[in-house]
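Q: What structure does this chain adopt?
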Amino acid sequence: MKIGLILPAFSASDRDWAIPVLLTLVRALAARHDVRVFPLRYPFTARPYVVDQAAVFPIGGGNARGAARLPLLRRAMATVVRAHHTEPFDVLHALWADEPGFVAVAAGHRLGIPTVVSLAGGELVHLRDIGYGGQASRLNRWLARVALRRATHVTAGSTTLAHLTARHVPHRRPTLLPLGVDTELFTPAATPGRSDGPRLLHVAALVPVKDQATLLRACSLLTRSFPGLHLDIVGEGPLRSDLDALGARLGIGDRITFRGAVAHDCLPALYRAADLLVLSSRYEAQAMVVLEAAACGLPVVGTAVGMLPDLGPAARTVPPGHPAALAAALRDVLADPAQRHAMRRAALEAVASRYTMAHTVAALEKLYQTPRCPCPPHDRA
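A:
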């Protein structure tokens, strides 16, 4: 098949993990199909290049904001249309429903070819107190609404997100289609690692929606039960100094290691060395780190967001924003080696049965060839 992928950003080379799962997806699709990639904003160039077997045509939108977004979208649509006239696409697939989704459905409608729009972020939420989510912007709301109403198919990476989509666009029934994990890179250790004390791992950008403040408060409640407790935090962001200060105020600064940014291909070793992955987010569309941990046999305890509820016995979930509930779940799992072993086994089974990148590619191939659904009403907003 000839597939056009419209993305917000993509790797500038085969060693650039700009959005790691997108590089993994493109590699897997390009090994079987003719794939052309159209990243809207990153890399900051408009010069075509090749990654593995995929031709990449960056639009070079950079940090365009406000009115400058409209010329970016027109330029992207024109680039996709020209590429189609050179060698026709069978399908256009956008990941993220706002800018990429709009470009895909606008170009697809003009060219008369099917389109797939995959929700992949916060397009349908607005957490007002932290200014997070695409619904905060009137333009983003309109772009996403048009994309979701006009797409041939809509996919969501978690049951939670699929339900949210149905509430926003009642006539759509999204296909549950998670982005799978690279099981060649993320593999379990031969035997679970052993540490002097419980070792927790958290992998996320240090930004408000990831809510590391709740994570640190939960850890402070565990220190009496687990004197050797240690927390490794992988990621960087604007909240680093605030979290440092909070750790000191809670008296757990010496139990936290901020590791900063870690190369994607170095993450498996950290997953294998930990006892639990902890997710404290207030919102996730899917949460790829959960699948990476699960593929390494690392149990997950975290907030009931993204795909955590879909993992069943492989994860323990609590409501977002509740340090005591998170601490209680962590205490329960850490105190029970048999439970951790069962969660490890369930995690590996879940990944092997439905969450590999091979599963994703097979599901997409089927979706790409599914006859077009009845055309939804055009958006009049």
